[in-house]
Amino acid sequence: MRANAPYTRRRLVLAGVAITVVLAAFYVLRSGGPLSILHRAIGQDFSASNAEVRTYEIESELTGGVREEIAILPATRSARPPLLLLFHGRGGQSMSWADDAMLAALDRQGKRAPVVVSVDGGDHSYYHDRDDGQWDSYVMNEVIPDAVERFGVDPQRIVVGGHSMGGFGALNLAMRHPGRFCAAGGHEPAIWRTGGETAPGAFDDAEDFARNDLVGTAISKPKSFGSTKLWLDRGDRDYFIAGDEAFIAALRSKGTSIKTRVWPGDHGTDYLWPHIDEPVAFYAKALADCEPVAARGG
User: Fold this and answer.
1) What is the DSSP letter of 146?
2) Helices (H), strands (E): how many in the chain?
3) Mean pLDDT of the 186-202 span
4) Which of 27, 43, 91, 125 has a beta carbon 3.0–4.6 Å from 135's, enabling a disulfide?
5) Strand 129-130 versus strand 115-119 pairing type
6) Average pLDDT for residues 276-280, to the nearest whole number?
């Protein structure tokens, strides 16, 4: 029994450290403190980036709850910086986008880097208005006005992008608000050709899918995106290949341009981070070249 005492003490010490880290992480998230503290506690260090990562909350009437958002504020930015909205994947969190690779990609854009707001989309909202919340309206009427007031961003220059569920949400938001965004991008977006292919919980019912059918709308209403510049990338082993390719084909058959990339990888952020520089550069250029909302029909 005595021989095992040092081992037992080590286990107690390690358990104490683990509890301390969890409590510190919880405190940082709830208090809205610097996210870099949290990431250093769990092994991720933002010290190489010049950006400030900040947590904050929005009390949303449209989704019926307190939403926890993440902002990435470039060290060098204009007095009226552009805004990049990012949507996370199913089961993810807004902090999913606060990754070292993302911060490094923004740093490389220098003065063109936008303010980033990573939007809390709940577990499986797919960022559209539905029975459990007005998620599209929440972005348009709560998240964007809050960012304009809180961070002084330019409401005329906004792009939206997302991964998986968030990729669908970003493209769908742009489709439903033609010309409102300078650009929209989907990274391995969750796009389906028919309602029968959809994941459980992605839509309320067949009518909900029909209202938010990206492929069908691209075919029947080819001007739905207005002048918004479009981007789509995916892994060569991604399980949304069929839907993504159908969406691309539908757009191009009607004369709508979309920039696409296929890179090695399956579905997940492990695929995303090695390739994030090019879409971030696409977003930054679209923002730099963007005309006022009225000129682009938004």
Assistant:
1) H
2) 11, 10
3) 97
4) 125
5) unpaired
6) 98
SS3 249: helix
Cα angle, residue 287 at apex, residues 236 and 250 outer, rounded to 5°: 45
∠ CA 244-248-249 to the nearest 5 degrees?
115
Strand 52-60 and strand 65-73: pairing? Answer: antiparallel
Which secondary-structure segment (H or E) carries 90?
none
Q: Please state, in angstroms and rounded to a whole number, the distance separating the CA atoms of residues 166 and 179.
A: 19
Phi/psi region, residue 127 (left: phi>0; alpha: psi -120 to 50; beta: rest), is left
**CA 43/CA 50 separation, integer angstroms:** 18
Q: How far apart are CA 48 and CA 178, in angstroms?
A: 38
Work out the angle between the directed axes of helices 100-107 and 277-289 (0-180°, nearest 10): 40
The mean pLDDT value for 160-173 works out to 98
| Beta-carbon contacts of residue 17 (< 8 Å; ≥ 6 apart) | none
| Residue 94: DSSP 8-state | G
Question: Encoding tokens for residue 211?
Answer: 């209202």
Kindly state the tokens that stand for 213: 């059918």
In this structure, the chain runs to a length of 298
How many whole angstroms separate alpha carbon 215 and alpha carbon 53? 36
